[in-house]
Amino acid sequence: MRKDRGKTEERQRELSALTLPTSSDGVSESRVPKRHRARSVGIGRAHAKAILLGEHAVVHGAPALAIPVPQLTVTASAGWSSRAGDGRGEVSVTMTGSASRALVTRAFDGLRRLTEEFFVRTGAAGGPPLEVVVDGGIPHGRGLGSSAAVSRAVVFALADLLGRELTEDLAFDLVQTAENLAHGRASGVDATAVGAERPLLFRAGRAEELPIGCDGLFIIADSGVPGSTKEAAELLRAGFGRRAGAAERFVGRASELAEAGRRALADGDAEGLGSRLTDYHELLRAAGLSTERIDALVEAALKAGSLGAKITGGGLGGCAIAQTRPEQAREVTRQLHEAGAVQTWAVPLKGFDSHAQ
Questions:
Q1: Residue 238: is it exposed, middle or buried by C-beta count within 10 angstroms (0-12/13-18/19+)?
Q2: What ranges does the record list as Basic and acidic residues composition bias (predicted)?
Q3: pTM for the structure as a whole
Q4: pLDDT, tens digit, for every residue of 94-116?
Q5: What is the mean pLDDT of residues 303-316?
Q6: How far apart are CA 341 and CA 308, in angstroms?
Q7: CB under 8 Å to 278, separation ≥6 — which residues?
Q8: Domains of the chain listed by start with CATH number
Q9: Do the bridges between strand 308-312 and strand 319-324 make them parallel or antiparallel, or are there none, so unpaired?
């Protein structure tokens, strides 16, 4: 707790040092379109997500189950810069925290394209150069939707700055455009789930809220090793190409497990849901998408009494997720750390049932 508080205070100090203008002082009135003068800083937020079932198969039409992870958030601030520019919507991006130089470079390229697309899709006029500060608490490359969350936060920060109302459909389209650039063919799960309030069923490009009949919680364990959705997808496709019918078998089995998991979640069959998680891990492991460290985390969670555990996200690193009864959470968390988890987060299902319809 003390370590987390220290990180939070450090990010706040960084943000304070990078504070964007809170008024139009320093920005020539003649350079700011009239519609922009009412607001000089816009704020946008998003959160992480975790996939329970359906990784990779969802892009082939199989269902996927995902949960929001509200404990991990991203906040973006967008404002007008006082520096000189050519008036064509230039943007500079600053990412706080410990992001690597390579990550910042990739993020800058993607967010610049996202900003250009925002202006095109919303019809907003260009103005002075933009400054965007992203304060992200979602570790990158862990299968938790960090890139989608950053994109969503930036999109809503721009909308707030410009006084534009965004529909969820337009927000999804903008974030999905960025996701396709970052990962190749993106399923749309991340673009949807990083703004959701409840667990979702995602199928054939459409999302709907999942009914919840189970209690308990999910513990997400960070292996400390970044994964790569794009590399994992390429590895999976290569495997499909070597074996006739492999793609159909993979997607068929994934669909069975996701549908069975959906029914178990709705019916309150916690053991049934857990067994589907573990079975799905075996499916991904057989496809070569797990790692020794992830396998060790899964084994440790099951040994500690979890009902089920698996890799979550694209694979080749990232996180494991374990379904656990509340009374087992402390022991499961302890053994996950002993098995190599560098950090863990608990996501209780109970927190979502108040939104049930």
A1: exposed
A2: 1-14
A3: 0.84
A4: 888 655 555 556 667 778 888 88
A5: 96
A6: 17
A7: 298, 302, 308, 309, 310
A8: 2-203 (3.30.230.10), 212-353 (3.30.70.890)
A9: antiparallel
